[in-house]
């Protein structure tokens, strides 16, 4: 079956899965409701019904799951493409750590608006990504998967210590940062998403617009140049888009790891390595994965719940171990 035909099958299936999980996210929790109640709450939101209020209260985390999951899935697939590294992920490459430092700095300096925090997170994520890539590029053999992972771990550890130092100096910022750092959906409400929509839209457009050229980059820089591609410009634009997505997603709900690592590998199993299909499907699969992880986290330890950032780590860490152990060489 051709990649195009696989895509024609996988896309509607994933759309259906995302819709079902979105309904499940609205229905499942400490007080579960039926699909009819969910539909009634969405179509008649002004009704002062207890079940309706419960559903609408869950709407923010459902929207966050859709937006953040899609952003991280697309960012991860793009990072794996531009680095030709099957282990690339916003968390592994230090992007989340860079965003975290920028966020706590912004909080310590009194920045309260979400767009301001999102801008700070994007800048911090971009700086961290550039540093990690530079470390890997200067190592013997260039930016290989293992050197990128090690560089990301080193930069992440250093930035984590910076976060701890700022938290000690500014206890007031620590209170807000500690809850944010766990990776929790829906803490800011539905109205927070439009405030960062411009970052998400621009980042997604930059990534999706480079899909055809990313296919050429997978053949090697020399081949891509011979085909007329501007390799450096494409890498910069794609990296900027991926960092904007990852940084904004981190600012919105906190650092959530491994979604960008796991999702592209799962999608390649279904539609192959063609980035024209891989990137949009990674958005759908990322949204599905994050919504599913959030639903499991809500129901796994009643009456409490497990933060979605912890659930994705429980899923993604074993996958990374398998990839490293088997020395997977995925054709990006």
From TrEMBL:
It is a multi-pass membrane protein. Its main location: membrane. Pfam families: FecCD. It comes from the Bacteria. SUPFAM superfamilies: ABC transporter involved in vitamin B12 uptake, BtuC (SSF81345). One of its GO terms (cellular component) is plasma membrane. Gene3D superfamilies: ABC transporter involved in vitamin B12 uptake, BtuC. The chain crosses the membrane at residues 91-111, 117-136, 148-173, 193-215, 252-271, 278-300, 306-324. It is found in: Cell membrane. Belongs to the binding-protein-dependent transport system permease family. FecCD subfamily. This is Iron complex transport system permease protein. It comes from Tessaracoccus oleiagri.
